[in-house]
């Protein structure tokens, strides 16, 4: 597919070539804006835009009233590294794998180099809405937003939460830079270094990283691939250990996609009351369900012990970096922690997203997105059905991934290094626990369409595990 470059980019490329080929030497003056317009047949604004971009890249420097000059040392300028030139495969620890996967932007894609160039219509609408909010911005760029975040976005969140059995008010939300930050603020508010936190096993590796960072101890509670945390096992643990908080994903837990049944939720909250536990609800996949969207745990939280954490990352855009937390009895403390660590969130971004939701863009995007997730999950299950090894896979009704259990002798952490040599990035099971368990498991995402190269990558994976 060929794409016509915008004029400023064509001009920028021409000028860069002249500099990098040595045609223009360090310290040499570039043609004036007027000459460039004349020579290249572009407008003044296009020429200025191209020059500003080269200046931002450090290739040229502006001198007051004299024009633009080639910057010294431009020959050391390195082109951006390609994924294939990233660090060579080597023995790894679990946290290195996590960092490595994130560096390759590959948490939800076997082949991160196979990005689609087509922007879905809903995202085009979202981008327009954010663009409009940015253009409407007048003097607000000189002022911080309030720490809890934009009231309109919080009102929209409150309206949406009512659909999931929880009629919240706008002031029960605090906007964050993603669910990871929400979880971080929640743990900071309820725990002190050395405290014990209960988590699901297998469970989200991001939480394990947070516990490590905050010097908290972890007790892993077995989780069923279908119904999530084993509440009986949690009860026994609470009788033995002084646990401060429990992090749980009742709706489409990662990595399995499990949904916690209503009775288990009621028992969980009763245990929280009995043991004075904070329940940190990671609800990031809540909206992704295609058959139904489960209620939030907050819907039955009569003691205000649930801290609800979520974001737009899984169903709208990971790149927005926009999430929220509703802190129950710890809410004011959480706002204070957000203020301390971040001061405020970007106002125009929040306003753009709030308008997108208010105008119905989010709901219609979700309707389409859920259907494509469903098809992609079905396709993945069909492809897994052809694998030559015996395996068990979950078949979730929401979320972005499923959990595959391979024969016990398969070590998916070693496989990670192996597949990387071929540009395939997998998510090994041992990432989802501190116990060393799940070494024969994999989380496989269905967040992207199964096009030819992804099908081939999955097939290759099946050959490597056989
Ligand atoms: C269960 C879970 N919680 C939280 C996060 C972090 O979300 P965010 O990108 O909004 O920070 C993720 C991202 O992978 C996740 O899977």
Summarize this entry quickly.
The chain is of the alpha/beta class and 466 residues long. 41% of the residues lie in helices and 13% in strands. The longest helix has 25 residues, at 361-385.
Polypeptide structure, described:
The protein has 466 residues and is of the alpha/beta class. The protein folds into 3 domains: 7-76, Arc Repressor Mutant, subunit A, CATH 1.10.10.10; 87-118 and 372-465, Aspartate Aminotransferase, domain 1 (Alpha-Beta Complex); 123-359, 3-Layer(aba) Sandwich (Aspartate Aminotransferase, domain 2), CATH 3.40.640. 41% of the residues lie in helices and 13% in strands. It is built from 15 helices and 14 strands. It has helices at residues 7-20, 33-40, 44-56, 94-103, 121-136, 151-162, 179-190, 205-213, 231-240, 262-275, 331-342, 347-358, 361-385, 412-420, 452-465; strands at 60-63, 67-70, 174-176, 196-201, 217-224, 228-229, 243-248, 278-282, 306-311, 323-326, 392-393, 401-405, 427-428, 441-445. It has an 8-stranded mixed β-sheet with strand order 3-10-9-8-7-4-5-6, with helices on both faces. A 4-stranded antiparallel β-sheet has the order 11-12-14-13. A hairpin with a 7-residue loop joins β11 (392-393) and β12 (401-405). α5 (121-136) crosses α12. It binds pyridoxal-5'-phosphate. The site of pyridoxal-5'-phosphate (PLP) has 14 residues, from α7.
Keywords:
single chain, alpha/beta, Aspartate Aminotransferase, domain 1, Aspartate Aminotransferase, domain 2, 3 domains, 8-stranded mixed beta sheet, 15 helices, globular, binds pyridoxal-5'-phosphate
């Amino acid at each position: 597919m060929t794409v016509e470059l915008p004029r400023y980019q064509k001009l920028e490329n021409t000028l860069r070539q002249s500099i990098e080929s040595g045609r223009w030497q360090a310290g040499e003056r570039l043609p004036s804006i007027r000459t460039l317009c004349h020579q290249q047949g572009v407008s003044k604004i296009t020429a200025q835009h191209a020059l500003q971009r080269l200046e931002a890249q450090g290739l040229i420097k502006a001198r007051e009233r004299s024009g633009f000059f080639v910057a010294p040392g431009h020959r050391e300028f390195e082109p951006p590294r390609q994924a294939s030139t990233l660090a060579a495969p080597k023995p790894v620890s679990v946290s290195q794998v996590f960092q490595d996967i994130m560096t390759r932007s590959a948490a939800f894609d076997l082949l991160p180099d196979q990005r689609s160039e087509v922007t879905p219509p809903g995202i085009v609408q979202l981008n327009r809405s954010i663009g409009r909010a940015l253009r409407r911005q007048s003097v607000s760029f000189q002022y911080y937003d309030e720490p809890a975040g934009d009231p309109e976005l919080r009102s929209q969140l409150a309206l949406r939460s009512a659909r999931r059995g929880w009629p919240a008010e706008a002031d029960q939300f605090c906007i964050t830079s993603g669910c990871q930050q929400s979880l971080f603020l929640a743990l900071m508010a309820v725990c002190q270094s050395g405290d014990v936190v209960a988590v699901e096993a297998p469970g989200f590796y991001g939480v394990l990283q947070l516990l490590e960072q905050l010097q908290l101890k972890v007790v892993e509670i077995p989780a069923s691939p279908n119904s999530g945390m084993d509440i009986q096992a949690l009860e026994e643990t609470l009788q033995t250990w002084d646990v401060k908080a429990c992090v749980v994903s009742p709706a489409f837990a990662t990595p399995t996609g499990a949904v916690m049944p209503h009775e288990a939720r009621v028992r969980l909250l009763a245990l929280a009351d009995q043991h004075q536990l904070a329940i940190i609800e990671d609800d990031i996949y809540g909206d992704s369900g295609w058959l139904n969207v489960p209620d939030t745990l907050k819907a039955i939280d009569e003691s205000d012990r649930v801290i609800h954490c979520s974001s737009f990352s899984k169903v709208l855009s990971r790149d927005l970096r926009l999430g929220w937390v509703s802190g129950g009895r710890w809410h004011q403390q959480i706002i204070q922690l957000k203020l301390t660590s971040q001061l405020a969130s970007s106002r125009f971004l929040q306003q753009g997203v709030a308008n997108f939701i208010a105008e119905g863009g989010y709901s219609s995007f979700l309707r389409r997105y859920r259907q494509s997730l469903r098809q992609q999950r079905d396709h993945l299950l069909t492809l897994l059905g052809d694998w030559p090894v015996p395996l068990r896979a979950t078949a979730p009704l929401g979320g972005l991934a499923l959990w595959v259990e391979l024969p016990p002798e398969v070590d998916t952490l070693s496989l990670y290094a192996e597949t990387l040599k071929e540009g395939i990035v997998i998510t090994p099971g041992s990432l989802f626990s501190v116990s060393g368990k799940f070494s024969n498991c994999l989380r496989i995402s269905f967040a992207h369409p199964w096009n030819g190269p992804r099908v081939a990558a999955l097939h290759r994976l099946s050959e490597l595990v056989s």
